[in-house]
């Protein structure tokens, strides 16, 4: 890896743009969906400037890797990741190599299927306020970033405007029906356990993660991305042992820089200095090689 940064693919693709997220772009190929992972990076809900070289390739490469590793236990949406098969849909295919995924279109279930093995982030904030996370009562006296005895399933309603909304499991049942809710919960927990055990062998803690599912001909399919740093928290074991204020492996340089700047988090953030961008790029490459090589 060592790809020039790509901020957007809109000029490189001749298919309708369906959706532009903070990081990824979705194009309509007719029968299939084209997902392009750019090098954009976000923090505190802002897209930062400039993009981070290799981030898109790492995210897409990790997703593709995990989808393949788990396809026996969980069917997924991947058709292929080969830019040369896209023919006239793309210009300058070399700029898109490694960052595309052609997927089957699914009818999305509007729930983010979150699994937490540790109490951190938004889960920690809920616990401090209520002693519960998404309606699940947890033991008293847990410490921030502490490991839970068992992983918990904490769904969120997908909300296209604004923030996803944490909901108790019973609310998920109301929204999607008991059968689908239980199936998605069980599959999510199984996939988390797979990822957790796999990462542990490589000295990485999978603190939590998010999956999305869709339906194709009545079958439950894993869609979107899978166990990437944008959808999961990876902690290096060696840092976890040292530091109670552990940050995820990927965005640590960015957050440290922003925390030390005078940015107020309510206006566009300052541009990232070159050394912060480079440090972040190497974090992504490191995660990729620690997990897949
Ligand atoms: N196979 C699929 N079929 C249908 N929809 C899919 C499929 N795979 C992914 N999606 C949807 O594509 C979208 C990808 O968007 P993306 O995650 O980039 O942005 P976002 O979630 O809207 O916002 P954010 O930038 O905050 O992540 C998601 O809405 C996801 O549910
Ligand atoms: Mg998303």
Key terms for this structure?
alpha+beta; 31% helix; 7 helices; 8-stranded antiparallel sheet; binds adenosine-5'-triphosphate; 5-stranded antiparallel sheet; 26% strand; 293 residues; D-amino Acid Aminotransferase, Chain A, domain 1; Phosphorylase Kinase, domain 1; binds magnesium ion
List low-pLDDT spans. none
The CATH class of the largest domain, by name, is Alpha Beta
> Could you tell me the strand content as a percent range?
25-35%
Radius of gyration: 19 Å
> What is the 3D shape?
globular
Kindly report how far apart the N and C termini lie: 13 Å
Please identify the structural class as seen in this structure. alpha+beta
Write down the CATH topology of the largest domain: D-amino Acid Aminotransferase, Chain A, domain 1
Give the tally of β-strands. Answer: 17
Number of domains: 2
CATH architecture of the largest domain: 2-Layer Sandwich
Estimate percent helicity. 25-40%
In sequence order, what are the helices and strands, one letter per element?
EEEEEHEEEEHEEEEEHHEEEHHH
Number of helices: 7
Structure write-up:
By secondary structure, the protein is of the alpha+beta class. It has two domains: 105 residues, Phosphorylase Kinase, domain 1 (2-Layer Sandwich); 136 residues, D-amino Acid Aminotransferase, Chain A, domain 1 (2-Layer Sandwich), CATH 3.30.470. It is 31% helix and 26% strand. The chain contains seven helices and 17 strands. The strands form four sheets. Strands 8, 9, 12, 13, 14, 15, 16 and 17 form an eight-stranded antiparallel β-sheet that branches. Strands 1-2-3-7-6 form a five-stranded antiparallel β-sheet. The model has no long low-confidence stretch (mean pLDDT 96). Belongs to the SAICAR synthetase family.
């Amino acid at each position: 890896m060592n790809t020039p940064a790509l901020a957007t693919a809109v000029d490189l693709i001749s298919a309708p743009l369906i959706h532009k997220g903070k990081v990824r772009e979705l194009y309509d190929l007719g029968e299939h969906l084209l997902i392009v992972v750019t090098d954009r990076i976000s923090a505190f809900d802002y897209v930062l400037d400039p993009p981070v070289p290799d981030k898109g390739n790492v995210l897409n490469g990790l997703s593709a890797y995990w989808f393949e590793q788990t396809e026996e236990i969980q069917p997924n949406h991947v058709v292929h990741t080969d830019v040369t098969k896209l023919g006239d849909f793309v210009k300058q295919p070399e700029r898109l190599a490694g960052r595309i995924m052609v997927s089957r279109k699914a009818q999305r279930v509007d729930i983010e299927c979150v699994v937490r093995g540790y109490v951190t982030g938004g889960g920690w904030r809920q616990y401090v306020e209520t002693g519960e996370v998404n309606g699940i009562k947890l033991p008293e006296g847990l410490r921030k970033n502490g490991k839970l005895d068992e992983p918990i399933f904490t769904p969120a309603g997908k909300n296209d405007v604004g923030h996803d909304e944490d909901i108790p499991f019973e609310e998920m049942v109301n929204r999607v029906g008991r059968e689908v809710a239980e199936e998605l919960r069980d599959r999510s927990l199984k996939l988390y356990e797979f990822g957790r055990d796999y990462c542990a062998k490589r000295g990485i803690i999978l603190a939590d993660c998010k999956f999305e599912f869709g339906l194709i001909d009545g079958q439950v399919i894993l869609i979107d991305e899978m166990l990437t740093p944008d959808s999961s928290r990876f902690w290096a074991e060696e840092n976890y042992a040292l530091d109670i204020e552990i940050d995820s492996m990927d965005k640590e340089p960015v957050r440290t820089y922003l925390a030390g700047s005078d940015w107020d988090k309510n206006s566009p953030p300052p541009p990232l200095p070159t050394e912060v961008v480079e440090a972040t790029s190497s974090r992504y490459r490191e995660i990729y090689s620690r997990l897949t090589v």
